[in-house]
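Convert to structure. Protein one:
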Amino acid sequence: AFRIISQNRGTTTSAFCLAHPKSYPRRSTLFSSLGKPSKNGHEILYSEEVTFALEAVRKACVITKKLQDKLNTITTLQKDDSSPVTVADFASQAVILQHLNEHFQNDLFLAEESSDNLTSHVSKQILNACESSKIKDEITLKSCIDLGKKFYRKDTGSHRVWCLDPIDGTKGFLRGEQYCVALALLEDGIPTIGILACPNLPFTDGSGSSSVGCIFVACKGKGCFQLDLEELSNRPPKRLDSSSAALRDPSTARFCVGVEQGFADPVGKCKEMAEHLHGRLADDGSGEILYAVRMDSQAKYGVVARGDAEFYVRLPKPEHRDWIWDVAPGVLVLEEAGGVVSDANGKPLDFSVGAKLTSNGILGARSRLQHEALLNAYQK
């Protein structure tokens, strides 16, 4: 069951949020899919699956951006695990799954939210948010949201699963900070497409200019790209490849970690690792990691993939097991950019065993040598 906890904007702001969106000009132009392919080596971005997936997440981002700008007007609920969920989460999931199901009816879907216990009042808010979509009534709305349960049907015979976190980093969303729409396609348990749409993360291409909003797109064995979120941008897709980049020594490597240390690092292990690698913690008395960027959501994987940080560490309580929608999109983005991701024991993550991983902890780095240093620090 849900419990209404707020209809107001959250007020807590992290001092470690990378490129706070309020520091950049807001864009009002709506987003849509990429145009026709050009002869620039980016053909993978125009496969049928990637094209429709990008259309879907861009539609969702139009909605989430509008709702984040008026948080005091939307309802926030509390789930049984005490985590927040908003009208934006439900609207994003409904729009994305409706679009994907329209084009890939034989595929399975696994998504975070469920329409169970949604009241008519909240459903009306979600419908209003989806007004530009094909979802026009409450029955259709709930049906689209619950496409995310199709994964649990055993009679389809499909080996393809789209897993979705409609708003990854809901707490960041509620603070007006970083969040992402995270989508992955798994085939026989292997992530083959990973998409992180980050409406508040600047697109950076090394030119010295930036704009708010980017998408990371990765295809298994074919690379990772950063796109501008806006359709009308003249920025070409940028291939992300750490193998051709100058890499930092682990002693100065930057950690990109979660805002809420109580979840991602409850026993302080990440800080111990950072102190081992850097030689010390920050000098300001905060006990903070010396070189650190903090933000919510899987956007962290994109930040590491493009070289704004080198280490990703997620070490929740030993009994915790991550849902695959919380991990698969970001892992493929970082791996296809030349990075390495493992569980806390250095083993590859296994997405073939069900809706949750069976291992605990995630260590990611921009290169194999950096990952070896990170793993060694963990094992100390």
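Protein two, convert as well:
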Amino acid sequence: MHPHFAAEDRLLRRRFDGIEISRSDLKTSSGLGVVTKAIHEQGFVVVRGLLDPSEVEQYCNAIRHDIQDWPVDIPTKQHPKQHPPKRSGAAAAREDSDGDGHALRTPDGPPPYVDFDPAVRAGLLVPETKALGVRRLFRIATNNTVFRTLCLEDERLVAPARHMLGSDLKLVQSMALLKPPGTGEKRWHQDQGVFRLSHVALGASCVLGWWIALDAADEDNGCMHFWPGSQKQGVVEHSLPVPASPAAHIHYSVSQCPPPEETVAVPLQPGDALFFDVACVHGTPANNSNRPRRALQMQYAPCSARPTKCPTPTTASNNPDAVAASRVTKANSNNSHVNQQPQQHESQQHESEEQAQQQQHSLYPTLSVVQEVGHVFDAHLAAPSDSRSPTAWFDCDADRRCTEPQFWSFRKAEALVAGQDHGPEYI
């Protein structure tokens, strides 16, 4: 089954009618209890009226001004003589992105703040205006003080995250997600399929996100859709279409589509928001309307969350002999561990690390085979009906090489919100 939004599935999908709260509930202990219960059970909660109309207007204006002031112009129907952004080498790599969700990790720097649609950059699409050619503003808290105040200081956003994740808190990522009319879908996925963060106490449910509507969002223009309760599965297998290309990363998604009758559409009015576990499977259909769909997204995690690293050296990923040797080494290491007498005086830190490693294996069960062979694309993991590479790792490239060591810096969080940093091995 192809993991995208088929037209016939809409007839089977229901509108969300579950737990909702208002922004005033975020100020009470009972309201935060409702938030915790909803996220544990269904994976998300709807918060009506999180932003008031004047705030919505303020953030829309900030987006509009930042796009207009961005010193790169594109050809538009209003100004057709402009040239597409000229990119080559490192600059081209930096600007490749997946459109509605995450930057392609590149070792030489992050994508630009204003991220144009890949088709616009390639000269295949000429939007009506410059703003309609942009799919995302990346790291908005870093690049605009208005958004920085919202993401790092606004208690409406920070307090629920702190309540569930603890007092040492980081902003993992912040973006403005723009879906102009005619823009395609963002397939079913988990943000944790990219982040791969884990925590000793919280497991894979250690990243919580806000998705705030700036326009009315419905099924026609690409509102958020969820598979309620799917966060309880941990991180499931993700894959890319074949053949892979930079634009294919737009479709990085779960390898098996959720049953449409188990999914829900969550329409929102401007200022409404979703607070959700980013391990909950979600996506947005194409914008088939003549209306824009703009949203803000920010994700938080404990400072003590750790990225899950690939344990296999890059050089082993394409070498069958090296892969086999890696397996033998791993087996010997495991046997040696079994034969050794347990130490009587292990440090607490070592115990925590052992717990974290064990928990990562249980939380990321579909990644274990891929980890063992160093991100090799194993054909037997692919669904027979889907011509997609079955890698569960976002950073494997089209040549089947593990490039995670180069991308390690992109596992770092965007900013410290509260508390203290836990060191370079953590986010």
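The chain has twelve helices and 19 strands. The CA atoms of residues 153 and 209 lie 15 Å apart.
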